[in-house]
Amino acid sequence: LPSLSLPSSMHLIQVDSVQRWMEDLKLMTDCECMCILQSKPISVEKDEQNELILSSQYSTCDNLQLLLKRAWIISTELTRIAQKLEKSRWQRVHSVTVRVNCHVRSMINEYNSFTRNSSEEMHQLEKLLIDKCSEFTAFTERCLQTEDEQILKSMKSCINETLATVAQYFGQLIELVLTHEAQNLLRQIELSGSLYVTESAVSALFSLAQEGAHLCRIIAKEGGVVALFKICRQDCFRCLFPQTLRTLASICCVEEGMHQLEKVDGILCLADILTDNSHSEATHAEAAAVIAQITSPHLTFTQHLSSFLENMEEIVTALVKLCQEASSGEVFLLASAALANITFFDTMACEILLQLNAMKILLAACSDKRVVDTPYSRDQVVTILANMSVLDQCAAEIIQGNGVQLLMEMLFEKSSSGNPAEVAACERVQQKSAVTLARLSRDPEVAEAAVKLSCIPRLIKLCRSPTERNNSDSVLVACLAALRRLAVMSPDGLEDSDFQQLVKPRLVDSFLLCTSMEESFV
Fold it and tell me: With contact defined as beta carbons under 8 Å apart, do 279 and 241 qualify?
């Protein structure tokens, strides 16, 4: 079975099974109704057409969500057919094929009831899919009428071929439908001067973008980034800036979105927004979110952001100010995440941060639980500190801002909820705080402060106790490196057994020793 190109809605799997069944129940009962009615749609009279179009504007998001859910069900059922066919369970193959036939017809009729201006290509593809589904159902029905193994074996290859064709037509139709809907929404943004219509279209675009990278590529290819930046350059739409920027951040997770951003001087627009004090904090925060997205170190296609370097000092200055004046944890998280990513993006950013007294601002923010209230925020702060710690001048700033105490506290970072994402963030905080200590401890004053604050016993505990570091190898390596640096500056701080096992051997040997330790060894 070929790929159905529907990664966009697979997140629907990750819900409670009973809740999922309740949501699907309506679709399933509609499916049975469609069997009886032979999928004949109720026509809309011409004089009712305007009313239909008007009402559809209010539920574009809902209609698209219904379409994506139906598409998800169909793709799941097609996969199920392939599995049942492999096991030659002909009765199940036929029953699931009938369901797919009904779902396809329901999906097409539902879509045609709320869309307009469908292309001839789309209608042709709909007809091809419906015909092929009917042919598919007839094939599988014929298989139930014989028990001859040889005949069934010969028919299996035909069914496989038909299944592949149905999957291909279905994937092409969904691609065409989503492209068509993106075009409609972008046309509304382009042609409408109405605040309400523009807000509705941007909201629908954001909803689409949340369905995954595939949808983001479609929106970007159809000019979504260009249209959204056009909104951000018009003062009459200022109240829509936060929502528009949030949508841009979603779309710019794909390469096509980044290329479009570069073409329309998006970096310059973001710099203007961030440095304009007349904008709201929400607008500044969402602009910071776009910066965080496009500078993410996980992306492999940031090299073309040449214009970013031209505006970097302005952007970094504005982000530091946003961190300093943040009224909530969310605002601080977005601004600090952007700064953290920028320190990976270009080393010059660290020097700018040092000049802006950013170290003092970030260390002060960490003592304010209203602003730095989660491991995610601390992860961003310690990332900035780790990247800045390569600069020699950084050590004095750390001492002045009581930063060694903060790094020591971060070595104790633990998740309170057990949530996997939060646990991973805590591991990163522990790892990066150890890395920062290792880098800064080349300065005798920092090393002395770390020893006085009992960093050595804590690092030993993290090395020897797997549960303290949540069995993280990256935390272990960072702690071994920090411990070895401190041991050079203060050899009296270690017992002989710790020195012989954790400091004296090669790093890889100490690592292997610690990873093989049982908890009872501690």
Answer: yes
Query: Each residue of 419-452: pLDDT tens digit?
Result: 899 999 999 999 999 999 999 998 899 999 999 9
Domains of the chain: 57-178 (1.20.120.330), 438-521 (no CATH)
Three-class DSSP category at 118: coil
- Nearest Cα to Cα of residue 171 among 364, 3, 350: 3
Give the residue from 163, 183, 144 showing the smallest Cα distance to 79. Answer: 163
Residue-wise DSSP of 233-273: T-GGGGGGHHHHHHHHHHHTTSHHHHHHHHHTTHHHHHHHH
Calculate the CA 282 to chain-centre distance: 20
Instruction: Look up residue 58 and give its two tokens.
Output: 């209010």
Q: Which two tokens stand for residue 42?
A: 């109720």
Query: pTM, whole model, 2 decimals?
Result: 0.80
The residues, ordered by sequence, that sit 6+ positions from 435 with a Cβ below 8 Å of its Cβ are 386, 389, 478, 481, 482
CA distance 267 to 158: 54
What is the 8-class DSSP label of residue 145? T
- Inform me whether the pLDDT recorded for 50 exceeds 60: no
Could you tell me which residues come within 8 angstroms of residue 78 by beta carbon, excluding any fewer than 6 positions away?
Answer: 1, 4, 100, 163, 166, 167, 170
- Amino acid at residue number 181: E
The H-assigned helical ranges of 115-194 are 120-144, 149-191
The percentage of the chain sitting over the pLDDT mark of 90, rounded to a whole number, equals: 48
